[in-house]
Amino acid sequence: MCCGVTIGDMATNRRPGSQGALRAANQARVVQALRAAPATQSEIAERTGLAHATVSNIVRDLRERGAVSTQPTVHQGRRASLVTLERAEGPTVVGIDFGRQHVRIAVAADDPVVLVEDEVVLPVGHRADDSLAIAAERLDELLEEAGLQRGSVAAICVGVPCPIDLRTGAILGHSILPEWDGVTQDRISEAFGMPVELANDSDLGAIAERAFGSYGEVDDLIFVKLGTGIGSGLVIGGRLHRGSFGIAGELGHVQVDPAGTLCVCGSRGCLETLASVRVMAQSLSAVFGRPISSADIVRQALAGDPATRRVVADAGAAIGRAIANAANLLAPAVVVVGGPLAELGDLLLEPVRDGFERFALHALTTSTRIVGTSLGSRAEVLGAVTLARQSAKAAAFI
Amino acid sequence: MCCGVTIGDMATNRRPGSQGALRAANQARVVQALRAAPATQSEIAERTGLAHATVSNIVRDLRERGAVSTQPTVHQGRRASLVTLERAEGPTVVGIDFGRQHVRIAVAADDPVVLVEDEVVLPVGHRADDSLAIAAERLDELLEEAGLQRGSVAAICVGVPCPIDLRTGAILGHSILPEWDGVTQDRISEAFGMPVELANDSDLGAIAERAFGSYGEVDDLIFVKLGTGIGSGLVIGGRLHRGSFGIAGELGHVQVDPAGTLCVCGSRGCLETLASVRVMAQSLSAVFGRPISSADIVRQALAGDPATRRVVADAGAAIGRAIANAANLLAPAVVVVGGPLAELGDLLLEPVRDGFERFALHALTTSTRIVGTSLGSRAEVLGAVTLARQSAKAAAFI
């Protein structure tokens, strides 16, 4: 629970062929080159074929994250720096995070190194079989980039933005990914050629905030994922709470307006009908006369557009009210807001805090902190890596 | 976690001098008489001075609860029944439950016997020091009735209908017992002359449903106490969840009407402003032109009075809506409704279930059961006994 600083921001927001993807691939080559034995930076450049400057940058990054250590040495008569992988790698594990328009994949060895990580854009309305095939193929490529075999993967955890019925292992309906309704853990396992663990993305966010974020010591934490839909992951008494059969944390379907709009879930006035990215985008599309994405909302609000700021403020207030309801029940120490709109920072968090303070018990207003995630769009995949690691460790004891 | 059937309904709804109180005292004498050695019913009658018929009734009750066993024997040449205390008694523990107008006290030995139990009526607006003195005095009397010394009490747990700040050990304000605001665990301990554990009454209800009710195997359970105020106790993952500093479960302050009435907590439209006994009694008092108590509500609704039934139905629907919000977050297997109005049975539970089904996620409507308590008004004191037992057992290991 102490690797937040070491894993840092490695290879985020990467698309295939982008500079980030290239950098991740290069980094994997450096790690691979060091696996056999410590080496100077010149030797690494020789072994990998990378430019000296590239190796130097990567080694600096890895050292800052605690993944390698360096010590002075002499190489071919010159002063040099001997680079050593900081700790033996454990079993390779894989975290995968499917969203409405993306799949993010991280291949990790034992703490603290995420070896390679990538995000592939998926079309809205993507179908499970297609997306699983894309993810499996990209995973194979990433493993190859990292010099690993598929057979070396000890555990895979797959996150989805849907409730999961633990009794059947199937994705439940009425989610923001309706094309995945009824998809089972078995079917996903088949796509990856090995048993996978299936988890809700908000649950993974909550796990990541404790494993990689600043909240390793916090026993009661709610992770709120504000995206196309709204979900939450609950850590209660230091443990993830999945509910009696797996669908706990449906903050998006907490009711905030008894006479409100009909919701996809069949209820009325759910938080999602007031405050999701989908609803915000709909309002703004009507004003701007063009489709609006979550990236547009972030950009426009940061640029000061009044309509976008108003929509964010209204949504934030409703989210704060729903968080107050959840906090009146659970009295968490920390509520972490994640998802694509978390980039808005205080533009989003201030109205959330205002809504919270209006409706939370007075004692909670001074004890429950509402903060933005420090893990950006990686929170979910890092949670998946964490669960996969736990599975691999548990399996090692069998 | 298996003593529900054994403790049964022993000595409920008892007032000093009432038949129930007499019966409890007699029962305690029988248990006391059996402590030294097994005895026939005639011998018990001799030892206690009780009539044979009384002894026979008490022994039958105790046997049904598993507190004693009987076996055929011969006594003075006649066939008789030898009565044996079923198990060695453990340390004596005390559970105490303060309400807005009562204090209930139970003295218990190790599972499964509650030796004596009594309820004393307190005036509305009772002050902590007065009520604590009354409770301490009545406890001494009960101990004496049971043939026990104050010094033999291993642990006391005191329940209050207020949130408790675990950081300071003090009762927090804005509860239905404002006269107790700021009273500390230390002050209560002083009143009883030994350290006591302080707990929220709804939390105790939740504990009792698992220890004495039908839900020992249920890991995720919410106990809703519907009284002058509305509170809830949360068992999550098999453990009581008190929140980051003790005030979890404030279901009465979950917001169900954004533009609703101002609440004592400082928020608006809290469940308590729509559905507590206080609010129901206010509505009905205006109609009937006289003060209405919770007992009146129960009696009138059972008798078929339309206004009372309407008030109960409206409150039930609002409670169901708040339970749906809680369930959408926590996905409990069981929600148990307790408090004085639980006696209404389906008259209350049906509208609660209707409200729940309208606003809960579809998957929950078939998986979360909403039931009335089987422990009546004893739930809280039995929870206090359970916590006191746990404390006594924990202390034994120190």
TrEMBL record, chains A, B:
Keywords: Kinase, Transferase. GO terms for molecular function: DNA-binding transcription factor activity; kinase activity. CDD domains: HTH_ARSR. Pfam families: MarR_2, ROK. Residues 26-79 form the HTH marR-type domain. Coiled coil: none annotated. This is Sugar kinase of the NBD/HSP70 family, may contain an N-terminal HTH domain. It comes from Agrococcus baldri.
